[in-house]
Amino acid sequence: MPEILLDINNIVFDYNKGGRALDGVDFAVASGEFVALAGRNGSGKTTLTRLAMALLKPTSGSITLQGKNTSAMTPADMAHSIGYVFQNPDRQIFRDTVAKEVAYGPEQLKFTPEAVNEAVSKALSMTGLTEAADSFPRTLSRGQKQKVAIASAIAMQPKMLILDEPTSGQDPWEAQNLMELLVGLNKQGITIILVTHDMELIAEYTTRAVVLDKGCKVFDGTPTALFDGSQDIAKWGLIPPAAVALSQQLNGINSTDAAELTGLVSRAINQRRENHA
């Protein structure tokens, strides 16, 4: 049975000035999963990821990483367990070459010089940035900057990556390229949590979706189950992928006919994934 890396146990988070951002959220992420954390703006996604990174403390409940309560973990412990990539890569890029940027984390974790060089070389290779090692990061495209941020995170050798809307601001080719990179990292053993409102990405690339709405977990299951018509996802502010919506229209399938639609959606999703295998 895969190891549980992240265990979110009945988390409640209240704002200092009143109001509840999260109300009893509870789920676990196992090693090797590729999970989408979805929901409309204000659903609690960002708050939950900040709690997972120990940047906030829950009002009640607990979060553990590899069996350790995050409230008792050092920054170094956190960095070895979990990496975070911001929606805007400019928020975390500040050194004058790509290689120096990727080296920063391992240096702060007191890797030996040899280990730093090895970690940087491996991270650049894994993200396809070896040829850009001496480039000034600010001159790169949005997609390349996002890869630099990902390389910087994986250089610290975490078990899991959380990425906040990583394809935001990218053209379709760059977005597809980035998602295929994440699929590749996942196949190499890195657990992925993708924070997104993009249902196309969920359908095409992830294996599980957790949906938040108004601070509560309202769905936890496969993309197929999310889009098979048995869930009224519109009430959560979600729009089904275009291929799914079109398939429903072309086949004239009643949304309550879950069994038939499940097969249709499964074939559509599997075909799209095979195109990127």
From TrEMBL:
Pfam families listed in its UniProt record: ABC_tran
Name the record gives this protein: ABC-type cobalt transport system, ATPase component
Keywords: ATP-binding, Cell membrane, Membrane, Nucleotide-binding, Translocase, Transport
Family recorded in the similarity comment: Belongs to the ABC transporter superfamily.
Molecular functions per Gene Ontology: ATP binding; ATP hydrolysis activity; ATPase-coupled transmembrane transporter activity
Compartment(s) where it occurs, according to its Swiss-Prot or TrEMBL record: Cell membrane
Protein's UniProt keywords contain Nucleotide-binding: yes
Residue ranges occupied by any ABC transporter domain in the UniProt entry: 6-239
